[in-house]
Amino acid sequence: MKSQGLVGVVGAGYVGIATATVLASWGLATVLVENNPDRFALLGERRIPFFEPELEKVLVEVAESGTLRFSRTLEDLADADVVLVCVGTPPTATGALDLMALEQVVERLVEVARRGAVIVIKSTVPPGTTTRLAGVVATRRPDLPLVSCPEFLQEGSCLDDVRRPSRVVVGGADATACRKVAALFAPGGAPVIITDATSAELVKYGANAFPATKISFVNELSHFCDLVGADVTVVAAGIGADPRIGPAFLRAGLGFGGSCFPKDVHALEDLGASLGYQSLLLKACSEINAQQKDRVVAKIRDALGGTLRGRRVAVLGVAFKPGTDDLRQAPALDVVGKLIAEGALVAATDPVAAPGPPELPREATFVADVYRCIEGADALLLATEWPEYRSLDWERVRSLMHGNVIVDGRNFLDGVRLVELRFDYHGVGRPALSRPTSRSDDAAGPGPAR
Ligand code: UGA
């Protein structure tokens, strides 16, 4: 690899921290710029603002070795050869993306960047954005090429995803600049695709919209399974064994959440609408995803005899998926809101995330200890498939609960075993399981009332 000078990374979110840490671990002098005082202070203590233990460990190493430094100002990137912009592009109230932070960073880089520095847009932006910004930059600093290099990391495995990406996609009008950016990631050994900026940006949207659509497809199938009495876990395994389909992202359940899939599916649909194209597929993808939560709430309601009013529901897991404390667009929180709207008394728990208002509705309680959360519940909803929930002491759970209904929103628990312990088990898209009532069961009765 041709030796690189200083690399700048702007924005200490998942993408920025993981990218800066990995580049520094490959020996590249890297400066990570974060202007939020709280986040910057945390970095100074060599801590990261979210749950990603492996990443924090390596960040400590590269910060101690001096390869990774932190700064609050873009002026410290005046000597950088390449600047990777990784700031957030959150949705606004209208659903459009807020590109203000990104535009401000580019604007400032125009003022401070050294001659010929490459500005790389890693933030997820609507196709056409990099080319538009490149046009603006060219009027003042034609020496500064802009390229798009989207990120494909998943929360929970950020470090590995940046270290060993499945591909590196770089798009821009300046082929030399694109190759320079691709060379940064050469130690990862991934195939490189060099293209135009708009195609690179659309790769990112396609790469998120496709697995999201796969999830909605399997959730649609789960509905058919409920209607005909089939088991979606078997159906998914059966179709996923076809190499043209593949088994990944075929787990039916409460649907997808997080800061990326819901936002990116909407953004792509909106892009089409702004250009006069109505995407039926993306609309259906989002609608099916929303519908899953209603279906799970209906399962709990039905299992509790037709009403949720005054019934206690314990929700296990609130993070949008296991391995993260991220609550953005978490399906569990959506379900909690719906349960409360129907008059249920909700207690929620999570091994890592600790939501308070406004994420968790005021009427719900958060109880860090899983067994205390379950105490007195009429029904238990498994909303996030944290591995520790599979190995709970289920006999103890049974004795702590008031009722015996388990709704497994991720088809994750061992239903057969739970039925042996006298639970009624309801998955998503699979037949409910319950033990035929016998005299001895009647004698045993339900668990203790609260
Ligand atoms: C996602 C993509 O997977 C990454 O490739 C992408 O880089 C990232 O968004 C991004 O754009 O930054 P992430 O948001 O970390 O990564 O989450 P995923 O692991 O993809 O899961 C998304 C959601 O889908 C979760 O709520 C998960 O529970 C759900 N899911 C996943 C299912 O419901 N079923 C499945 O089979 C798989």
Summed up, what is this model?
The chain is an alpha/beta fold.
Question: What's the SSE blueprint?
Answer:
Blueprint: E1 7-10, H1 14-25, E2 30-33, H2 37-44, H3 53-64, E3 68-71, E4 82-85, H4 100-112, E5 118-121, H5 129-140, E6 146-148, H6 158-163, E7 168-171, H7 175-184, E8 192-195, H8 197-228, H9 232-240, H10 261-274, H11 280-303, E9 312-316, H12 331-341, E10 345-349, E11 365-366, H13 370-374, E12 379-382, H14 387-390, H15 394-400, E13 405-408, H16 415-420, E14 424-426, H17 439-444
Parallel strand pairs: 1-2, 1-4, 2-3, 4-5, 5-6, 7-8, 9-10, 9-12, 10-11, 12-13, 13-14
The structure holds uridine-5'-diphosphate-glucuronic acid.
Residues 124, 151-155, 208, 215, 249-251, 253, 255-258, 260-261, 320-321 line the site of uridine-5'-diphosphate-glucuronic acid (UGA).
Count of helix runs = 17
Distinct small-molecule ligands in the complex: uridine-5'-diphosphate-glucuronic acid
Sheet with the most strands: spatial strand order = 3-2-1-4-5-6
CATH architecture of the largest domain: 3-Layer(aba) Sandwich
Mean pLDDT: 95
**Count of distinct structural domains:** 3
Per DSSP E runs of 2 or more residues, the count of β-strands stands at: 14
Describe the largest sheet.
6 strands, parallel
Q: What is the radius of gyration? A: 24 Å
Q: Which stretches of 5+ consecutive residues score pLDDT under 50?
A: 441-450
Considering DSSP H and I runs of 4 or more, what fraction of the residues is helical? 40-55%
Structural class: alpha/beta
Q: What portion of the residues fall into strands of 2 or more residues?
A: 5-15%
Assigned CATH class of the largest domain:
Alpha Beta
- Indicate the CATH topology of the largest domain: Rossmann fold
Distance between the termini: 66 Å
